[in-house]
Target: ABC transporter permease
Amino acid sequence: MLIEQLINGLTLGSIYAIVALGFTLVFGVLGIINMAHGEIFMFGAFIGVILTTSLQAPLWVAFMSAIVITAMMGFLLEKFALRPLRNKQGVSHLAPLISTIGVSILLENLSHHLFGAGNHPFRASFAQISFEIGSVTIYLVQLVIFVISVILMMALSFWLGKTKAGKALRATAENLETASLLGVDTKRIITMTVIIASAMGGIAGILVGMAFNSVTPQMGLSMGLKGLAIIILGGMGNVKGAMAGGLILGLAETFIVVYGDSGYRDAIAFLAIIIILLIRPQGLFGQKISA
Model:
């Protein structure tokens, strides 16, 4: 029982980590919280529903379509909601945040119009395939989700640390003006960052559909707030912190449901925010800012 719940927690935490990575990439480069990220994630999930359930398309087609469409949504978000406000005289530093909140509300209402309210089933052909190791039952879909999450997180870490584009992104995050003076095309880097973050949200949406077999138009807000909680827990703008924070939250929620009161499941994320802000304001993996 304990091992099975640990597997469930790791599966859920892996999805949370991917969502949080999208948040932390945008925050690391632009210094803003993208409140539309949850709704972009939700659209990725609905793309999976439409393709796998309504059109009977293979799962890999749903993945590729979700990546392409959510990446396009990220491009449009950056071009029309964020870029016009950047470095504009007299614009409040809260303006980009308010802009993404507006996009979030727009996308949620659009999803109600396009997909309708309520739960929509997500049918993965192998969702019921399982095998037993001793007394532990493991579902194939759990392994697929975990493996995809680990590969994605490792690929992102490698890209950020070893490639020229990844180093340019880290330089832009460190100091936008200095990176520009050193020849980095910061406009392209910013656009690429939002596109990558949005595409990761689309992948996470497909994974959530696979994990829970259903999606709703309201899921974006909940997942967006949890993603915010995770990056605060792990450390704002810290990639490793986002990974660790997602896994911690996934495990905590799973064990609360099993050994506690499931009604408090969603409260765990925000209780964690309060505790972390009181004890370690910079997050578990964040760097303390000297006065």
Summary: Residues 42 and 219 are 6 Å apart (CA to CA). DSSP finds eleven helices and four strands in the chain. The beta strands are 120-121, 130-133, 136-139, 214-215.
